[in-house]
Design brief:
About 80% of the residues lie in helices and about 0% in strands. By secondary structure, it is an all-alpha fold. It has one domain: Up-down Bundle (Chorismate Mutase Domain, subunit A), CATH 1.20.59.10.
């Protein structure tokens, strides 16, 4: 029985190491995504474009739900995750717009 316990503990360590690596990759991927969306925010602000694009958001949500289904991931979870990210991106875009004087608190309102 102790052999089974030792094998289970070893497998647990392997799985946890994989989870830790995936978590690190997710953080780096999110950081890269936010670097890109920050550039989008500056582009929108300097061209007086709105911080949110509801049509693109709807397309992205539908796309992510399809990808989640293909990957056997709960599409509702994937949508909630993307909505969380989108809200944060919009918050950043609004702040950038204010910095450029084009947001709701800037002179062009």
């Amino acid at each position: 029985m102790s052999g089974d316990i030792n094998a289970a503990k070893e497998k647990l360590l392997e799985l946890r190491a994989s989870i830790d690596n995936i978590d690190a990759a997710l953080v780096h991927m999110l950081a890269e995504r936010f670097r890109c969306t920050k550039a989008v925010g500056h582009l929108k602000a300097t061209n007086d474009l709105p911080p949110a694009d509801l049509e693109r958001e709807a397309r992205q949500i539908a796309r992510l739900r399809r990808l989640a289904e293909e990957a056997h991931l709960d599409p509702d979870f994937a949508e909630k995750f993307l909505n969380f990210i989108i809200r944060e991106v919009i918050r950043h875009h609004e702040a950038i717009a204010v910095e450029h004087g084009t947001g709701p608190e800037g002179p062009s309102s």
